[in-house]
Amino acid sequence: MFKQWLSISVVLLACAAPAMAQDTYNPRKYAGETINVALAKQPWSDFITPLIPQFEQLTGIKVRLEVLPEDQNRQKLAVAFASGRGDIDVFGSQRHQEGAKYYAAGWYEPLKPMIDDRTLTAPDFDFADFAPQAVNDATVGGKLIGMPLYSELQVLAYRKDLLQKAGLSVPETLDQLEAAAKKLTDKQQNQYGVCMRGKGAATTTIYSGILHSMGGHWVDAKGNPDFTSPAALKAFEYYGRMARDYGPPGAANLHWLQCQSQMAAGHAAFWTDSNIFMATLLDPSKSAVADKIGFAMLPAGPGGRKPAGGGWYLSIYSKSKHKPAAWTFIQWAVSKENALKAQLAAIPTARISAWSSEEFRKSDKSPELTRATLESLKLKDTPSWGPPFVAVGEIRDVLGAVVVAAIEGGDIKSAAAKADEQIQAIRKKTEN
Amino acid sequence: MRRAERRAGWWFIGPAALVLVLMLVFPLGYTAYLSFFEWFAAGGPPRFAGVANYLQLAGDARFINALVRTVLYTVLAVGAEVILGIALALLFERPFVGRGYARTLFLLPMVATPVAIALVWLLMFDPATGVLNYLLTLLRLPKSLWVNDSLLAIPSLVLVDVWQWTPLVMLIVLGGLTALPREPFEAARIDGASRWQSFRYLTLPMLRPYIIVAALFRGIDALKTFDSIYVITRGGPGFASETLNLYIYASAFDYLHMGYSSAMLVVFFVLILALSAALIAGRRRAG
Amino acid sequence: MSTAAQRRRRNAVLLPLAVVLVLAAYLFPFYWMVLASLKTQIQNFAFPPLFLFTPTLDNYRSVFVNNPFVLYLGNSLLIGVGSTLLGLALGLPAAYGIARFRKGGVALGFLIARIAPGISYLVPWFIIFSELHLVGSYTALILSHLTVALPLVVWIMIGFFEDVPDELEDAAHIDGAGYFQTFLMVALPMVKPGIATAGILSFIQSWNTFMYSVVLSDSDTRTLPVAVFGFLSYGGFDWGSLTAAATIITLPVMLLALLIQRHIVGGLAMGSVKG
């Protein structure tokens, strides 16, 4: 009797098993579908590209990946979304760039419902493992619009040997930084104190840290731009001086990649930019000064220490026809396993477990950079790379022109006043 | 003309005319129509706005600056091309060994893919390691920032344009030179006129229609230059080399202001038509 | 005061010399392009710039290995040939019609169309093609390139058709040939050089087109000019690969141009080169 009961139970259980399996996560549920992934070229895209065949094998989902330079990718996405084409499923985006615009246009698929859905999300996904700051930055209007790829913020890279030779200590304030840069500049010898981005809109990313460290803000209490404030003007002047007097020639052409090259070739003593670009400096195959680079937090100004930050996210297009498959890809890409791999590949990920893991601690080739990043993450009220407007692209162009004017030694006050006007005009057209 | 002939004519022209209307006339009309709407493509559907876009243009400093820069670029480029083109045509007027081959080689800058050749100029313009600065140092001149300097950006771009299109002017003027009648020059020589006098009072006036045609074609294309500027400076540093075409492109495809960019296009089109009309009228006067 | 003979001898030497100098200055960018494509990354950043060095073909290899360059080449070819053939198919009868039956209005229409800036078409095209889900398709690209080819063909061929003697056509009519037969049998054979010129010039224009392709193509239908522009990420300037790609792109059209160089002069005088 008992045996009969047992066998019946076994049969019942066997029948129930597939039904139960429906209630749990199955990575192969969407096998056979194809998703289109659009990314901007950056360290993380370089990291994930060779791993994609693994994902395809694991899930049976085919991935069509296109990696473009950042500007082109942004334009391609804007144009594709505006035309209502539904054939982009996963894309990389930045909150401080297109976040507000895409959110206002309804192009992001909110991710929280999918995370909470046990049939769609792997049980070991562990959402709580993501750094709160990164998650916060990825949340617009209370909705999570993407999974963070980095813990990205502004740091200062410097040449330990040059500072030592000149008897300088690591600058703690922006004034000290300027003095040190001045001392270490010898243009005849192709030696520059600092490398600053100079390429129009790109400058505003770095300008943010300086603006806020000088006590300035992206917007005043009423939410309006105020680039004629004393702090903002001081920040423009500082930026202009540093680039013009202590930086390489042709400043207007410098983006992060050129500054990275200058630094890696040994021509610059200081460079401030995002931490995600710094690992290359320590790679002996790409850097002539790999063993001489040190890292510190962005020096403080009258307004305190305010390094800018804000990262990249993997998002799903709201009109995608393969949302579950897209989500399968995203959670795989930022899984604990892949985040650890990325962290070991010198990418500052957004998962706490990756940072605190044994393997990372043991193999960390850049403990100074790690320390600078983690210390900066502890700071309060750090600003975003970009201003909180919908038409950020256009406004960054306008603002970038002011920085360029500062670099060329023009009339900053009138340029800033004009920029304020132009920005308000743009906001009227694009925000309601 | 007989009716049968007229009907036959339409059969021949029909298909091409259809393409013309569908792909060109209709879109132009649509652009003009869109210029009266406010449409931020990331915001919502188009909203009728009357002449609001045009009024805004009048007060848009970035637009006005772009307009001025476009005219400046065109005047500089076409001016240089005409002068150099005439000089080169004179050089090629008399036969010499290898003239045919030389003239052929002059074609190459005109047909080379503008994007590709612009990249080469970008390499040559590099302030630190570019070969143009190297040549400057050989001549004991200081290195230049070329396209990385706000003031030099447009002149540097004009240099690229002049390099690429002077051969066109040269060829058109050369065609005119070879078509000139001999007698007036014979008569002038007999009368004791100097080479310079005969050039100034005979050649130039007779060449006027050809020069104007060359200036017309180059002028229209110079106003519309896009590829080389986009690739070399993207309008930078800041906005220092942003011509109207570049601003319109950014407005439409980077910022998604569809209505506003359409209004700019209408103004741009009118500008080009005005230039063409002026030059055509000038040609008619020159006979 | 030099005699006429002395002046002539001096000119015989100075003139070619001047021409050679001007030519050298003119062709220098091409020379530099090829040179840079044969240098390594480090050599390309050398200052003073290197004129003598050991060349390498690595850049050409990397252009094809690291990019679907063959795809882009194929796309440019497909779109170029497609738009040219269509342009000839539509433009030859049209030019004949304008020359024979004096429909000047259409010719004027083409002229005005050519004057308008390319973007004025791009925005409406983009909107319409989006609705039809054609953005990124070969159809959209060939159609947009056709709008460059068609006016070109028409403007070049009008002159050629006008040169066909009336008597020949009248003779054909008397023999009982219809309008289309006359066009096909009498006029077309006589304008073969024009057809070659117009066809090759159209192909060159399509090959060189950047703006239309950058907006209307996607990763599968990208053409060469767009691809080479993509090499320019921020300026991670891999000059070697960039100039190698540039060389590969410009070489075919330059060779084609040399083929029909005699006729280009005439065609150009009619302002057929697009900006």
Give an overview in words:
The complex is a heterotrimer of chains A (432), B (287) and C (275). Chain A is of the alpha/beta class and 432 residues long. Chain A has two domains: 21-151 and 310-356, Periplasmic binding protein-like II (D-Maltodextrin-Binding Protein, domain 2); 154-308 and 381-430, Periplasmic binding protein-like II (D-Maltodextrin-Binding Protein, domain 2, 3-Layer(aba) Sandwich). Chain A is 47% helix and 12% strand. Chain A contains 19 helices and eleven strands. Chain A has helices at residues 2-22, 43-48, 52-59, 70-82, 95-105, 112-116, 132-137, 160-166, 174-183, 203-213, 230-246, 256-265, 323-333, 336-344, 352-356, 358-363, 367-378, 392-407, 412-430, and strands at 34-40, 62-68, 90-94, 139-140, 143-144, 147-148, 154-159, 192-195, 268-274, 293-297, 312-316. In chain A, the strands form three sheets. Chain A has a five-stranded mixed sheet, sandwiched between helices. In chain A, strands 8-9-7-10 form a four-stranded mixed sheet, with helices on both faces. A two-stranded antiparallel ribbon of chain A has the order 4-5. The longest helix of chain A is centred in the first third of the chain and has 21 residues, at 2-22. Chain A is globular, with a radius of gyration of 24 Å. Chain B has 287 residues and is mostly helical. Chain B has a single domain, classed as MetI-like (MetI-like fold). In chain B, helix 8 packs across helix 10 (195-223). With 275 residues, chain C is mainly α. Chain C folds into two domains: 4-58, no CATH class; 60-269, MetI-like (MetI-like fold, Orthogonal Bundle). Helix content of chain C is 76%, strand content 0%. The longest helix of chain C is centred in the N-terminal third of the chain and has 34 residues, at 4-37. Chain C is flat, with a radius of gyration of 24 Å. Mean pLDDT of chain C is 83; it is low at 269-275. The chains are: A alpha/beta (432), B mainly alpha (287), C mainly alpha (275). The interface between B and C is large, with 89 and 93 residues.
